[in-house]
Protein backbone atom coordinates (compact mmCIF):
# COMPACT_ATOMS: atom_id res chain seq x y z
CA UNK A 1 0.00 0.00 0.00
CA UNK A 2 1.02 3.63 -0.52
CA UNK A 3 1.52 5.94 2.46
CA UNK A 4 0.38 9.55 1.91
CA UNK A 5 2.41 11.99 4.01
CA UNK A 6 2.21 15.69 4.90
CA UNK A 7 5.23 17.59 6.24
CA UNK A 8 4.73 20.63 8.53
CA UNK A 9 7.67 22.85 9.54
CA UNK A 10 8.09 26.60 9.70
CA UNK A 11 11.59 26.38 8.16
CA UNK A 12 11.34 25.89 4.41
CA UNK A 13 14.77 24.31 4.14
CA UNK A 14 13.89 21.62 6.68
CA UNK A 15 10.45 20.78 5.30
CA UNK A 16 11.66 20.62 1.69
CA UNK A 17 14.69 18.55 2.70
CA UNK A 18 12.52 16.17 4.71
CA UNK A 19 10.06 15.83 1.82
CA UNK A 20 12.94 14.88 -0.45
CA UNK A 21 14.24 12.30 2.05
CA UNK A 22 10.77 10.76 2.31
CA UNK A 23 10.46 10.31 -1.42
CA UNK A 24 13.95 8.83 -1.59
CA UNK A 25 12.95 6.19 0.97
CA UNK A 26 10.72 4.38 -1.49
CA UNK A 27 8.08 4.92 -4.17
CA UNK A 28 5.34 3.71 -1.77
CA UNK A 29 5.88 6.85 0.32
CA UNK A 30 4.31 9.94 -1.23
CA UNK A 31 4.45 13.51 0.08
CA UNK A 32 1.05 14.99 -0.71
CA UNK A 33 1.80 18.44 0.76
CA UNK A 34 4.31 20.58 2.66
CA UNK A 35 3.06 23.30 5.01
CA UNK A 36 4.74 26.20 6.83
CA UNK A 37 2.42 26.02 9.84
CA UNK A 38 -0.38 24.04 11.36
CA UNK A 39 -3.16 26.30 10.12
CA UNK A 40 -2.13 25.73 6.50
CA UNK A 41 -2.50 21.98 7.02
CA UNK A 42 -5.86 22.36 8.78
CA UNK A 43 -7.15 24.51 5.91
CA UNK A 44 -6.18 21.85 3.35
CA UNK A 45 -7.13 18.82 5.45
CA UNK A 46 -10.61 18.28 4.00
CA UNK A 47 -9.26 17.64 0.50
CA UNK A 48 -6.35 15.38 1.44
CA UNK A 49 -6.03 11.61 1.41
CA UNK A 50 -3.65 11.47 4.34
CA UNK A 51 -2.08 8.68 6.39
CA UNK A 52 0.81 10.34 8.22
CA UNK A 53 1.70 13.85 9.37
CA UNK A 54 5.34 14.65 10.22
CA UNK A 55 5.37 17.94 12.12
CA UNK A 56 7.89 20.10 13.87
CA UNK A 57 7.15 20.24 17.58
CA UNK A 58 8.03 23.96 18.00
CA UNK A 59 6.31 26.38 15.66
CA UNK A 60 4.87 29.88 16.15
CA UNK A 61 1.14 30.42 16.74
CA UNK A 62 0.36 26.68 16.89
CA UNK A 63 2.91 24.13 18.10
CA UNK A 64 3.04 20.51 17.00
CA UNK A 65 1.11 19.15 19.97
CA UNK A 66 -1.74 21.59 19.39
CA UNK A 67 -1.81 20.69 15.70
CA UNK A 68 -1.95 16.99 16.53
CA UNK A 69 -4.84 17.52 18.91
CA UNK A 70 -6.87 19.50 16.37
CA UNK A 71 -6.22 17.04 13.52
CA UNK A 72 -7.17 14.12 15.75
CA UNK A 73 -10.51 15.78 16.45
CA UNK A 74 -11.29 15.85 12.73
CA UNK A 75 -9.40 12.82 11.40
CA UNK A 76 -8.71 10.47 14.33
CA UNK A 77 -7.17 7.72 12.18
CA UNK A 78 -4.29 9.82 10.84
CA UNK A 79 -0.91 8.88 12.32
CA UNK A 80 1.75 11.35 13.50
CA UNK A 81 5.49 11.65 13.89
CA UNK A 82 7.25 14.71 15.31
CA UNK A 83 10.50 16.50 14.55
CA UNK A 84 12.40 17.34 17.70
CA UNK A 85 15.68 18.79 18.84
CA UNK A 86 17.64 17.46 21.83
CA UNK A 87 16.22 20.17 24.04
CA UNK A 88 12.63 19.22 23.16
CA UNK A 89 12.60 15.77 24.75
CA UNK A 90 9.87 16.70 27.29
CA UNK A 91 7.63 17.75 24.42
CA UNK A 92 8.44 14.55 22.56
CA UNK A 93 7.54 12.42 25.55
CA UNK A 94 4.19 14.21 25.90
CA UNK A 95 3.53 13.75 22.18
CA UNK A 96 4.13 10.00 22.47
CA UNK A 97 1.54 9.89 25.25
CA UNK A 98 -0.88 11.51 22.78
CA UNK A 99 -0.49 8.55 20.42
CA UNK A 100 2.33 9.81 18.21
CA UNK A 101 4.10 6.98 16.41
CA UNK A 102 7.61 8.20 17.12
CA UNK A 103 9.85 11.26 16.91
CA UNK A 104 12.81 12.13 14.72
CA UNK A 105 15.78 14.13 15.95
CA UNK A 106 17.07 16.97 13.83
CA UNK A 107 18.94 16.69 11.59
CA UNK A 108 16.93 13.76 10.28
CA UNK A 109 18.92 10.59 9.61
CA UNK A 110 17.86 8.70 6.46
CA UNK A 111 18.02 5.28 8.11
CA UNK A 112 15.95 6.45 11.09
CA UNK A 113 13.38 7.96 8.75
CA UNK A 114 13.27 4.78 6.72
CA UNK A 115 12.73 2.74 9.86
CA UNK A 116 9.94 5.06 11.03
CA UNK A 117 8.15 5.02 7.69
CA UNK A 118 8.39 1.24 7.45
CA UNK A 119 6.89 0.89 10.91
CA UNK A 120 4.06 3.31 10.06
CA UNK A 121 3.36 1.43 6.82
CA UNK A 122 3.22 -1.87 8.72
CA UNK A 123 0.81 -0.42 11.29
CA UNK A 124 -1.39 1.05 8.57
CA UNK A 125 -1.54 -2.32 6.81
CA UNK A 126 -2.38 -4.00 10.09
CA UNK A 127 -5.15 -1.46 10.75
CA UNK A 128 -6.46 -1.94 7.23
CA UNK A 129 -6.50 -5.72 7.66
CA UNK A 130 -8.31 -5.50 11.01
CA UNK A 131 -10.80 -3.07 9.54
CA UNK A 132 -11.42 -5.37 6.56
CA UNK A 133 -11.91 -8.39 8.83
CA UNK A 134 -14.29 -6.47 11.08
CA UNK A 135 -16.23 -5.19 8.06
CA UNK A 136 -16.50 -8.71 6.64
CA UNK A 137 -17.76 -10.04 9.97
CA UNK A 138 -20.40 -7.30 10.09
CA UNK A 139 -21.47 -8.01 6.52
CA UNK A 140 -21.71 -11.74 7.18
CA UNK A 141 -23.75 -11.09 10.32
CA UNK A 142 -26.28 -8.91 8.49
CA UNK A 143 -26.42 -11.14 5.40
CA UNK A 144 -27.16 -14.24 7.47
CA UNK A 145 -29.64 -12.94 10.02
CA UNK A 146 -32.94 -11.15 10.23
CA UNK A 147 -32.00 -7.97 12.10
CA UNK A 148 -35.18 -8.22 14.18
CA UNK A 149 -33.75 -11.40 15.73
CA UNK A 150 -30.40 -9.85 16.70
CA UNK A 151 -29.58 -7.76 19.78
CA UNK A 152 -29.97 -4.08 19.01
CA UNK A 153 -26.42 -3.22 20.07
CA UNK A 154 -25.05 -5.69 17.51
CA UNK A 155 -27.13 -4.39 14.61
CA UNK A 156 -26.55 -0.75 15.46
CA UNK A 157 -22.81 -1.31 15.87
CA UNK A 158 -22.54 -3.16 12.57
CA UNK A 159 -24.65 -0.55 10.79
CA UNK A 160 -22.59 2.30 12.21
CA UNK A 161 -19.24 0.75 11.23
CA UNK A 162 -20.34 -0.29 7.74
CA UNK A 163 -22.12 3.00 7.11
CA UNK A 164 -18.76 4.78 7.21
CA UNK A 165 -17.37 2.69 4.37
CA UNK A 166 -17.47 3.61 0.70
CA UNK A 167 -19.40 0.41 -0.05
CA UNK A 168 -22.46 1.52 1.92
CA UNK A 169 -22.12 5.27 1.55
CA UNK A 170 -24.93 5.44 -1.02
CA UNK A 171 -26.75 2.39 -2.41
CA UNK A 172 -25.71 -1.20 -2.99
CA UNK A 173 -26.89 -4.54 -4.41
CA UNK A 174 -26.13 -8.17 -3.58
CA UNK A 175 -25.11 -10.67 -6.25
CA UNK A 176 -25.02 -14.41 -5.55
CA UNK A 177 -22.80 -16.51 -7.82
CA UNK A 178 -22.95 -20.32 -7.87
CA UNK A 179 -20.37 -22.30 -9.84
CA UNK A 180 -19.19 -25.82 -10.55
CA UNK A 181 -16.35 -26.29 -9.88
CA UNK A 182 -16.28 -23.97 -6.87
CA UNK A 183 -14.33 -20.75 -7.39
CA UNK A 184 -12.10 -19.19 -4.74
CA UNK A 185 -13.09 -15.60 -3.84
CA UNK A 186 -9.74 -14.37 -5.14
CA UNK A 187 -10.56 -15.71 -8.57
CA UNK A 188 -13.95 -14.02 -8.57
CA UNK A 189 -12.21 -10.79 -7.54
CA UNK A 190 -9.93 -11.13 -10.58
CA UNK A 191 -12.99 -11.19 -12.86
CA UNK A 192 -13.98 -7.81 -11.39
CA UNK A 193 -10.58 -6.12 -11.84
CA UNK A 194 -12.06 -3.47 -14.15
CA UNK A 195 -14.76 -2.44 -11.67
CA UNK A 196 -14.15 1.08 -10.39
CA UNK A 197 -16.91 0.90 -7.78
CA UNK A 198 -16.43 -0.39 -4.21
CA UNK A 199 -17.28 -4.06 -3.79
CA UNK A 200 -16.79 -6.93 -1.35
CA UNK A 201 -16.47 -10.61 -2.31
CA UNK A 202 -17.24 -13.29 0.29
CA UNK A 203 -16.94 -17.06 0.16
CA UNK A 204 -20.36 -18.36 1.12
CA UNK A 205 -21.93 -21.80 1.10
CA UNK A 206 -20.28 -24.57 -0.96
CA UNK A 207 -20.12 -23.51 -4.62
CA UNK A 208 -21.48 -20.04 -3.79
CA UNK A 209 -19.90 -16.59 -3.61
CA UNK A 210 -21.56 -13.39 -2.40
CA UNK A 211 -20.69 -10.07 -4.02
CA UNK A 212 -21.84 -6.83 -2.38
CA UNK A 213 -21.34 -3.95 -4.79
CA UNK A 214 -21.81 -0.19 -4.44
CA UNK A 215 -24.44 1.53 -6.60
CA UNK A 216 -23.82 5.24 -7.15
CA UNK A 217 -25.76 8.33 -8.21
CA UNK A 218 -24.98 7.78 -11.88
CA UNK A 219 -26.42 4.25 -11.88
CA UNK A 220 -29.98 3.12 -12.61
CA UNK A 221 -32.46 0.40 -11.57
CA UNK A 222 -30.93 -2.24 -13.88
CA UNK A 223 -27.32 -1.57 -12.87
CA UNK A 224 -27.21 -4.64 -10.58
CA UNK A 225 -28.46 -6.82 -13.44
CA UNK A 226 -25.90 -5.32 -15.84
CA UNK A 227 -23.10 -5.93 -13.33
CA UNK A 228 -24.28 -9.52 -12.96
CA UNK A 229 -24.21 -10.03 -16.73
CA UNK A 230 -20.71 -8.57 -16.90
CA UNK A 231 -19.46 -10.83 -14.11
CA UNK A 232 -21.09 -13.91 -15.66
CA UNK A 233 -19.42 -13.17 -18.99
CA UNK A 234 -16.03 -13.13 -17.29
CA UNK A 235 -16.49 -16.61 -15.85
CA UNK A 236 -14.62 -18.84 -18.33
CA UNK A 237 -16.11 -21.80 -20.16
CA UNK A 238 -16.68 -24.65 -19.24
CA UNK A 239 -17.31 -23.52 -15.66
CA UNK A 240 -21.00 -24.01 -14.89
CA UNK A 241 -22.36 -20.75 -13.46
CA UNK A 242 -25.67 -19.44 -12.13
CA UNK A 243 -26.16 -15.90 -10.86
CA UNK A 244 -28.92 -14.06 -9.00
CA UNK A 245 -29.05 -10.31 -8.34
CA UNK A 246 -31.04 -8.30 -5.81
CA UNK A 247 -32.77 -4.97 -6.17
CA UNK A 248 -30.91 -1.80 -5.15
CA UNK A 249 -30.95 -1.09 -1.41
CA UNK A 250 -29.73 1.55 1.00
CA UNK A 251 -28.39 1.00 4.50
CA UNK A 252 -26.50 -2.06 5.84
CA UNK A 253 -29.57 -3.25 7.77
CA UNK A 254 -31.19 -4.17 4.42
CA UNK A 255 -28.44 -6.68 3.63
CA UNK A 256 -30.52 -9.72 4.61
CA UNK A 257 -33.42 -8.59 2.44
CA UNK A 258 -31.06 -8.04 -0.49
CA UNK A 259 -29.47 -11.46 0.02
CA UNK A 260 -32.85 -13.23 0.04
CA UNK A 261 -33.77 -11.46 -3.21
CA UNK A 262 -30.52 -12.60 -4.82
CA UNK A 263 -31.04 -16.13 -3.52
CA UNK A 264 -34.61 -16.27 -4.88
CA UNK A 265 -33.30 -15.12 -8.25
CA UNK A 266 -30.54 -17.72 -8.18
CA UNK A 267 -32.97 -20.50 -7.27
CA UNK A 268 -35.08 -19.63 -10.30
CA UNK A 269 -32.21 -19.95 -12.78
CA UNK A 270 -31.03 -23.16 -11.07
CA UNK A 271 -33.71 -24.85 -13.17
CA UNK A 272 -32.35 -23.52 -16.49
CA UNK A 273 -30.32 -25.51 -19.03
CA UNK A 274 -26.93 -24.47 -20.36
CA UNK A 275 -23.62 -23.49 -18.78
CA UNK A 276 -24.55 -19.94 -17.78
CA UNK A 277 -27.77 -18.26 -16.70
CA UNK A 278 -28.78 -15.35 -14.50
CA UNK A 279 -31.85 -13.62 -13.13
CA UNK A 280 -32.62 -10.65 -10.93
CA UNK A 281 -35.42 -9.93 -8.52
CA UNK A 282 -37.21 -7.60 -10.95
CA UNK A 283 -37.78 -10.51 -13.34
CA UNK A 284 -39.15 -12.94 -10.77
CA UNK A 285 -42.75 -14.04 -11.13
CA UNK A 286 -44.79 -13.70 -7.96
CA UNK A 287 -44.78 -16.94 -6.02
CA UNK A 288 -48.12 -18.38 -5.00
CA UNK A 289 -48.80 -21.15 -2.51
CA UNK A 290 -46.12 -23.36 -4.06
CA UNK A 291 -46.07 -26.09 -1.44
CA UNK A 292 -49.83 -26.70 -1.56
CA UNK A 293 -49.77 -26.65 -5.37
CA UNK A 294 -47.04 -29.30 -5.50
CA UNK A 295 -48.97 -31.48 -3.03
CA UNK A 296 -52.13 -31.15 -5.12
CA UNK A 297 -50.21 -32.41 -8.13
CA UNK A 298 -49.11 -35.44 -6.10
CA UNK A 299 -52.67 -36.14 -4.98
CA UNK A 300 -53.87 -36.12 -8.57
CA UNK A 301 -52.11 -39.28 -9.84
CA UNK A 302 -49.23 -40.38 -7.66
CA UNK A 303 -51.06 -41.03 -4.39
CA UNK A 304 -53.90 -43.07 -5.99
CA UNK A 305 -51.36 -45.20 -7.90
CA UNK A 306 -49.50 -45.96 -4.67
CA UNK A 307 -52.67 -46.85 -2.82
CA UNK A 308 -53.59 -49.30 -5.58
CA UNK A 309 -50.02 -50.63 -5.57
CA UNK A 310 -49.76 -49.85 -9.28
CA UNK A 311 -46.00 -49.26 -9.21
CA UNK A 312 -45.63 -48.66 -12.95
CA UNK A 313 -48.36 -46.02 -12.88
CA UNK A 314 -46.84 -44.45 -9.75
CA UNK A 315 -43.46 -44.12 -11.47
CA UNK A 316 -45.05 -42.56 -14.56
CA UNK A 317 -46.99 -40.14 -12.33
CA UNK A 318 -43.78 -39.19 -10.52
CA UNK A 319 -42.00 -38.41 -13.81
CA UNK A 320 -44.95 -36.27 -14.89
CA UNK A 321 -44.93 -34.51 -11.50
CA UNK A 322 -41.26 -33.63 -11.86
CA UNK A 323 -41.92 -32.27 -15.35
CA UNK A 324 -44.59 -29.99 -13.88
CA UNK A 325 -42.25 -28.93 -11.08
CA UNK A 326 -39.52 -28.08 -13.59
CA UNK A 327 -41.91 -25.82 -15.46
CA UNK A 328 -43.12 -24.08 -12.29
CA UNK A 329 -39.59 -23.55 -10.89
CA UNK A 330 -40.62 -23.39 -7.21
CA UNK A 331 -38.33 -22.21 -4.44
CA UNK A 332 -35.89 -24.73 -3.03
CA UNK A 333 -37.87 -24.94 0.18
CA UNK A 334 -41.11 -25.76 -1.66
CA UNK A 335 -39.26 -28.31 -3.82
CA UNK A 336 -37.70 -29.99 -0.77
CA UNK A 337 -41.10 -30.18 0.94
CA UNK A 338 -42.65 -31.71 -2.18
CA UNK A 339 -39.92 -34.35 -2.43
CA UNK A 340 -40.27 -35.09 1.29
CA UNK A 341 -43.99 -35.66 0.66
CA UNK A 342 -43.18 -38.15 -2.13
CA UNK A 343 -40.76 -40.06 0.09
CA UNK A 344 -43.25 -39.99 2.96
CA UNK A 345 -46.03 -41.48 0.83
CA UNK A 346 -43.80 -44.33 -0.32
CA UNK A 347 -42.57 -45.00 3.23
CA UNK A 348 -46.17 -44.99 4.48
CA UNK A 349 -47.22 -47.58 1.92
CA UNK A 350 -44.20 -49.71 2.78
CA UNK A 351 -44.82 -49.51 6.52
CA UNK A 352 -48.40 -50.68 6.08
CA UNK A 353 -47.07 -53.84 4.46
CA UNK A 354 -44.30 -54.39 6.99
CA UNK A 355 -40.52 -54.50 6.44
CA UNK A 356 -38.99 -57.03 4.10
CA UNK A 357 -36.51 -59.74 5.16
CA UNK A 358 -32.98 -58.40 5.63
CA UNK A 359 -34.20 -54.88 4.89
CA UNK A 360 -32.27 -52.33 7.02
CA UNK A 361 -34.18 -49.61 8.81
CA UNK A 362 -33.78 -46.36 6.90
CA UNK A 363 -33.61 -42.75 8.01
CA UNK A 364 -35.73 -40.38 5.91
CA UNK A 365 -33.60 -38.68 3.24
CA UNK A 366 -33.61 -34.88 3.29
CA UNK A 367 -33.68 -33.69 -0.31
CA UNK A 368 -31.81 -30.38 -0.23
CA UNK A 369 -31.67 -28.82 -3.73
CA UNK A 370 -28.62 -26.72 -2.81
CA UNK A 371 -26.57 -29.94 -2.68
CA UNK A 372 -27.03 -30.31 -6.44
CA UNK A 373 -25.44 -28.09 -9.06
CA UNK A 374 -28.61 -27.88 -11.18
CA UNK A 375 -32.15 -29.18 -11.62
CA UNK A 376 -31.16 -31.98 -14.01
CA UNK A 377 -28.74 -33.48 -11.46
CA UNK A 378 -31.35 -33.18 -8.70
CA UNK A 379 -34.04 -34.83 -10.84
CA UNK A 380 -31.80 -37.74 -11.82
CA UNK A 381 -30.79 -38.45 -8.21
CA UNK A 382 -34.32 -38.09 -6.85
CA UNK A 383 -35.84 -40.33 -9.54
CA UNK A 384 -33.21 -43.02 -8.94
CA UNK A 385 -33.95 -42.99 -5.20
CA UNK A 386 -37.72 -42.98 -5.71
CA UNK A 387 -37.53 -45.83 -8.23
CA UNK A 388 -35.50 -47.85 -5.77
CA UNK A 389 -38.14 -47.30 -3.08
CA UNK A 390 -40.92 -48.18 -5.53
CA UNK A 391 -39.04 -51.35 -6.46
CA UNK A 392 -38.88 -52.31 -2.78
CA UNK A 393 -42.61 -51.60 -2.50
CA UNK A 394 -43.20 -53.79 -5.54
CA UNK A 395 -41.23 -56.61 -3.93
CA UNK A 396 -43.29 -56.15 -0.79
CA UNK A 397 -46.45 -56.57 -2.82
CA UNK A 398 -44.99 -59.68 -4.41
CA UNK A 399 -44.05 -60.87 -0.93
CA UNK A 400 -47.69 -60.57 0.14
CA UNK A 401 -48.74 -62.68 -2.79
CA UNK A 402 -46.09 -65.29 -2.00
CA UNK A 403 -47.25 -65.58 1.61
CA UNK A 404 -50.91 -65.86 0.59
CA UNK A 405 -49.99 -68.58 -1.91
CA UNK A 406 -48.09 -70.54 0.74
CA UNK A 407 -50.93 -70.13 3.24
CA UNK A 408 -53.46 -71.42 0.71
CA UNK A 409 -51.26 -74.41 -0.08
CA UNK A 410 -50.88 -75.27 3.61
CA UNK A 411 -54.65 -75.04 4.14
CA UNK A 412 -55.20 -77.53 1.30
CA UNK A 413 -52.40 -79.92 2.27
CA UNK A 414 -52.19 -79.61 6.05
CA UNK A 415 -52.75 -83.34 6.53
CA UNK A 416 -49.61 -84.15 4.55
CA UNK A 417 -45.94 -83.99 5.48
CA UNK A 418 -45.08 -80.35 4.70
CA UNK A 419 -41.36 -79.94 4.26
CA UNK A 420 -39.99 -76.41 3.88
CA UNK A 421 -38.31 -77.27 0.58
CA UNK A 422 -41.60 -78.45 -0.81
CA UNK A 423 -43.32 -75.19 0.19
CA UNK A 424 -40.45 -73.10 -1.22
CA UNK A 425 -40.64 -74.93 -4.54
CA UNK A 426 -44.29 -73.96 -4.93
CA UNK A 427 -43.36 -70.26 -4.98
CA UNK A 428 -39.88 -70.56 -6.58
CA UNK A 429 -37.95 -69.25 -3.59
CA UNK A 430 -35.15 -70.63 -1.45
CA UNK A 431 -36.29 -72.16 1.85
CA UNK A 432 -34.34 -69.61 3.92
CA UNK A 433 -35.80 -66.61 2.09
CA UNK A 434 -39.31 -68.01 2.28
CA UNK A 435 -38.93 -68.54 6.04
CA UNK A 436 -37.79 -64.93 6.59
CA UNK A 437 -40.46 -63.53 4.29
CA UNK A 438 -43.24 -65.52 5.96
CA UNK A 439 -42.13 -64.46 9.44
CA UNK A 440 -41.84 -60.81 8.38
CA UNK A 441 -45.29 -60.73 6.77
CA UNK A 442 -47.22 -62.76 9.38
CA UNK A 443 -45.24 -62.47 12.59
CA UNK A 444 -45.08 -66.28 12.96
CA UNK A 445 -43.02 -69.11 11.50
CA UNK A 446 -44.31 -71.50 8.85
CA UNK A 447 -44.17 -74.34 11.39
CA UNK A 448 -46.32 -72.37 13.83
CA UNK A 449 -48.82 -71.60 11.07
CA UNK A 450 -49.06 -75.29 10.07
CA UNK A 451 -49.63 -76.26 13.70
CA UNK A 452 -52.32 -73.57 14.13
CA UNK A 453 -54.19 -74.80 11.04
CA UNK A 454 -54.01 -78.45 12.14
CA UNK A 455 -55.17 -77.72 15.70
CA UNK A 456 -58.08 -75.58 14.46
CA UNK A 457 -59.16 -78.42 12.16
CA UNK A 458 -58.77 -80.87 15.05
CA UNK A 459 -61.03 -78.71 17.26
CA UNK A 460 -63.68 -78.73 14.57
CA UNK A 461 -63.56 -82.53 14.24
CA UNK A 462 -63.62 -83.07 17.98
CA UNK A 463 -66.88 -81.13 18.14
CA UNK A 464 -68.58 -82.15 14.94
CA UNK A 465 -67.51 -85.80 14.76
CA UNK A 466 -67.97 -87.25 18.27
CA UNK A 467 -67.71 -90.81 16.96
CA UNK A 468 -64.05 -90.33 16.12
CA UNK A 469 -61.49 -91.32 18.72
CA UNK A 470 -59.04 -88.60 19.66
CA UNK A 471 -56.15 -90.48 18.05
CA UNK A 472 -58.23 -90.75 14.85
CA UNK A 473 -58.73 -86.99 14.92
CA UNK A 474 -54.96 -86.58 15.27
CA UNK A 475 -54.31 -88.85 12.30
CA UNK A 476 -56.84 -86.93 10.18
CA UNK A 477 -55.02 -83.61 10.71
CA UNK A 478 -51.50 -84.88 10.12
CA UNK A 479 -50.40 -86.30 13.50
CA UNK A 480 -50.21 -90.10 13.28
CA UNK A 481 -48.47 -90.27 16.68
CA UNK A 482 -51.21 -89.90 19.40
CA UNK A 483 -48.77 -88.88 22.11
CA UNK A 484 -47.29 -86.16 19.95
CA UNK A 485 -50.76 -84.98 18.93
CA UNK A 486 -51.82 -84.71 22.58
CA UNK A 487 -48.65 -82.78 23.40
CA UNK A 488 -49.04 -80.29 20.55
CA UNK A 489 -52.78 -79.85 21.14
CA UNK A 490 -52.29 -79.12 24.84
CA UNK A 491 -49.51 -76.66 24.10
CA UNK A 492 -51.75 -74.70 21.74
CA UNK A 493 -55.18 -75.10 23.40
CA UNK A 494 -54.10 -75.42 27.03
CA UNK A 495 -55.92 -78.77 27.46
CA UNK A 496 -55.72 -82.26 25.96
CA UNK A 497 -58.01 -83.20 23.05
CA UNK A 498 -60.17 -85.32 25.39
CA UNK A 499 -60.47 -82.48 27.94
CA UNK A 500 -61.33 -80.04 25.18
CA UNK A 501 -64.18 -82.29 23.88
CA UNK A 502 -65.58 -82.82 27.39
CA UNK A 503 -65.45 -79.12 28.34
CA UNK A 504 -67.20 -78.03 25.20
CA UNK A 505 -69.99 -80.63 25.70
CA UNK A 506 -70.66 -79.27 29.16
From TrEMBL:
Keyword Transcription applies: yes
Domain HTH araC/xylS-type: 404-503
Modified residues (4-aspartylphosphate): 56
PANTHER family recorded: ARAC-FAMILY TRANSCRIPTIONAL REGULATOR (PTHR43280), HTH-TYPE TRANSCRIPTIONAL ACTIVATOR RHAS (PTHR43280:SF28)
Domain of life: Bacteria
Keywords tagged on the record: DNA-binding, Phosphoprotein, Transcription, Transcription regulation
GO molecular function: DNA-binding transcription factor activity; sequence-specific DNA binding
Annotated transmembrane regions: none
Annotated GO biological process: phosphorelay signal transduction system
SMART domains xref list: HTH_ARAC (SM00342), REC (SM00448)
The keyword Coiled coil is assigned to this record: no
PROSITE patterns xref list: HTH_ARAC_FAMILY_2, RESPONSE_REGULATORY
Name of this protein: Response regulator
Response regulatory domain residues: 4-121
Pfam families: GGDEF_2 (PF17853), HTH_18 (PF12833), Response_reg (PF00072)
Family matches, as InterPro entries: CdaR_GGDEF (IPR041522), CheY-like_superfamily (IPR011006), Homeodomain-like_sf (IPR009057), HTH_AraC (IPR018060), Sig_transdc_resp-reg_receiver (IPR001789), Tscrpt_reg_AraC-type_HTH (IPR020449)
Amino acid sequence: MNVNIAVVDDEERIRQGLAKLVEQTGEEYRVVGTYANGQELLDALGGLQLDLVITDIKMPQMNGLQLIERVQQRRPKIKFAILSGFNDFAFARQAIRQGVEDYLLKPVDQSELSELLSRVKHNLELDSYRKAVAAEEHIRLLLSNDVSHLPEHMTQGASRELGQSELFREHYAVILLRTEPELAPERVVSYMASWTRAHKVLAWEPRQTVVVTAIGHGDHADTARELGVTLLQRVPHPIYARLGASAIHQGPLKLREAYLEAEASLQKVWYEDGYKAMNDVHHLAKRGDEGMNLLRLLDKDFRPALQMLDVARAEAALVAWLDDVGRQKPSWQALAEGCAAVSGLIRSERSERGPQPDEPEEEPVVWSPKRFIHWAAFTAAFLDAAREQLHILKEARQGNRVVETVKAYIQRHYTEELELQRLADTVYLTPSYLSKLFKTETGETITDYVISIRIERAKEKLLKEPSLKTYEVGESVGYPDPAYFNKVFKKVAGVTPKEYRERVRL
